[in-house]
Every structure is written in C-alpha cells, then in structure tokens.
Amino acid sequence: MFDWFTALVASIPWVLIVGLLVYFVKNPEKVEKWSSIIAKSLSSISSRWENASVAKDIQADINGFAKTTNAGMTNPVLPYSVKISWVLTTSREAFVKEGKVVIKMQKHANQARNFLYALLEWTYKGLIPESRHLLDKTVLRAIDFAFINKVLTETKRHDSKQLFLDEFYETEATKGSLLEKYSSAFNRLDKTGLFAGVVLPEYAFLGKSMSSEMPHEKIKMETIGFANVLEKLSRKSPGEDVSPDYNGEHIKCSIVPIARSEKYFTYGLSPYLTYINKCYEEGICSIYVCGIGDANISIARKIRDAYEKSKKISFVWERTQSEGDNKSTVLFFKAQKLA
Fold it and tell me: Percentages helix, strand, coil for the chain, rounded to the nearest 5?
C-alpha cells in the first residue's frame, strides 16, 4: 500500500525549494538584500565582497521602493530598477540598459553618501522618464526633491537625508523661491498619498501620450498650471473652497477627496457621482478619488463599484499608502474622451 505520509514528508524539501525559487523570482529585491548580507559576512576576506555588499544593499532598498510605488499601476512611474557598478573615477555616469539604470560611480567610505549619490542618479534617469523633457525645469526639480526626500524617509536612510538637505535641497530651494514652494507642496501632498497617487502618475501620463513631442513653452506652462492647482490643494484648510480641477489642452485632471463620511451618510453617493459625471461632461479624462481612513476609503470603493458597468468612466487602479497612523487610498478612473 502506498504510504502517502512518507511521500509527503519526502517531498517537503523540494516543495520548499520550489517555493523559495518562485518567491525570489517574484521578489528580486529580496535576493539582493540576502546577497548583501552574505557578501557583508565575507567582506573581511576581500574588498571585492565588501564592494558587492554595499552595492547589493543600495540596490535592494531602491528596487524594493520602486516595486512598492509601482504596485497596481498600469503605467509605472518608476519603470527601471537600478544596478551599481564601482569605478575609480570621481565623476558619476548613469544610463539605461535592459530595463535598468546602470550607475557607474566611485565607492565612498561613507555609505550614506554612496546611497544618496546612487539615488540621485536613479531618480534623474528613472522617475517618470518619458515626461521629464516636457516638464518645466522648476516643477521637475521640485518633483525630484520631494521624491528623494520620500525615499530617504521611508527607507530610514537618515544620514543620507541629512546630506541631501545640506548639500542639495537647502542650497537650491532658497526661502520664498518657486522651487521651495512646489517642493513643500509635493511633500505635504505625500502625507495624504496624493504625491505618489496623483502627482507622479498624472505627470507620467503626459509623457505617455506625448513622448514624441519636442519640449515647448505651451506644454511647460501646462505643467506649471497643474502644479499651481496642486500647491493650492496642499494648503487647503477644512471648509475652504479650492478647485481640484485642471482642464488644460493635454493635462485634464480632477481630484475628488472623500473628506467627511457624514456627507455620505446624509446624501449617499449622489454628490460624488454628480461631480464625477460633471467632470466627464467637461472633458476631464483623469479622475482620482481619494480617501483617508477606513470610513472614507470604504466610500471611495463604493464609488468604484458604482462605475463598474459604465461605458464612459472606467476604474483603472487603486493605490494605498500608510503614513503613521493614517491610511490613504487613491483610486484612478479614466474617462472616455468626448466625441
């Protein structure tokens, strides 16, 4: 008689091996993190292992952050992973090859500096790459600064963050400048999930639809106009009336915040659906429904369900972010262009 128990026990090692292989294929950044740990344990043997440990550690954190940020999005805002290559020259070089930003740079004794320099080069090549040439330079720099601050904060690279603030941000974003204004606005929006959930994907869509365009003043002025709407929204106080729409020639976007769950319990979904339908009638194509906290997030998802069979407005993706005790969700809807 066939002993199923014995067969199962005998197969466990292979099940584990296959399971680990599948896990690591789906999570390559975990492979890099473990490679870094192994290389670090061997770093006393030779500098080669030490160099490998430092590079793998940087790659694991950056690639892991990119995977989390892109999760669920149909048009990733960070399409490239990163690969570090140590060289002796003091100048840094970065280029895209086979889906990776390859960074050739000198290794510093200070790991905080290594991480910061790698992050800078990856950001300049890999963050919304199809759109970068179209954006106003100040708006783009503010996006980069807010993004770099976000990465350093969430990966807990505090030493690198201090270097970034001292050597880059505070030397460029002088008090009262437009760069400071936009950087601060994007940073405030990040606390509610709107930076990664609205700002980055909407600017990325611009590049997706116009990547063949040469940069010109009209497009750059639109990117400024949208940034101004976002800046006002970032400073909005409760009860203040600030338009969440930008309806330009190329950027056609509305942000629908679910601010008070009492509104839903009094009026139902009607106010939200009426507003979203109005956006469609006005030709707005990108609609972001945003909620903070479980109650508001639940309402946002009810809005999603209401458009399940709509031929005019389609739900595309959902992104959730936790900031301290606050949980925020952004749901992206794409409206069909009016005939």
Answer: 55, 15, 30
User: Is there a contact between 206 and 138 (Cβ–Cβ < 8 Å)?
Assistant: no
- Asked whether 193 and 292 are in contact (CB, 8 A), the reply is yes
Is residue 1 pLDDT above 50, yes or no? no
* CB contact at 8 A, 300 and 193: no
Annotated domain spans of the chain:
128-163+176-236, 243-339
Q: How far apart are CA 83 and CA 118, in angstroms?
A: 9
pLDDT at 150: 98
Q: Tell me the residue type at 320.
A: T
Q: Identify the CATH class of 243-339.
A: alpha beta
Task: Report, as an integer, the average pLDDT of 155-166.
Answer: 97
The answer to whether residues 202 and 290 touch, using CB atoms and an 8 Å cutoff, is no
CB 80 within 8 A of CB 99: yes
Helix H or strand E encompassing 208? helix 200-210
Q: Would you say 148 and 232 are in contact if contact means Cβ atoms under 8 Å apart? A: no
